[in-house]
């Protein structure tokens, strides 16, 4: 929350304290994309923000947005067990309603 003290760390592992100046929490629509891995076999799924500005990568080097995907389209995936935001590992959770 705004005003809370948090730990910050630089690339050398030096830890310091900072005060949160502001915080923004917002609900955004997400899509669940279920996929089949052709080469390794197996099924997977990922959650992505439903936005034209959220591109994926196709097998042909194109960058289709998640809103333009159709059943049967092929995209590249990196299989991992953690969530990512802008390519960085993050802690996350999902609440289904």
Helix vs. strand class: mainly beta
The main sheet comes to: 2 strands, antiparallel
User: How far is the N terminus from the C terminus?
Assistant: 25 Å
Tell how many strands the DSSP assignment holds: 6
User: Largest beta sheet: what is the strand line-up?
Assistant: 1-2
What is the approximate shape? elongated
- The total count of helices amounts to 0
Overview of this structure, please?
It is a single chain. The chain has a domain at 27-90. It is built from no helices and 6 strands. The mean pLDDT is 83. A two-stranded antiparallel sheet has the order 1-2. The protein is elongated, with a radius of gyration of 18 Å. It has 97 residues and is an all-beta fold.
Question: Features of this protein?
Answer:
single chain, two-stranded antiparallel ribbon, mainly beta, two-stranded antiparallel sheet, 0% helix, elongated, 97 residues
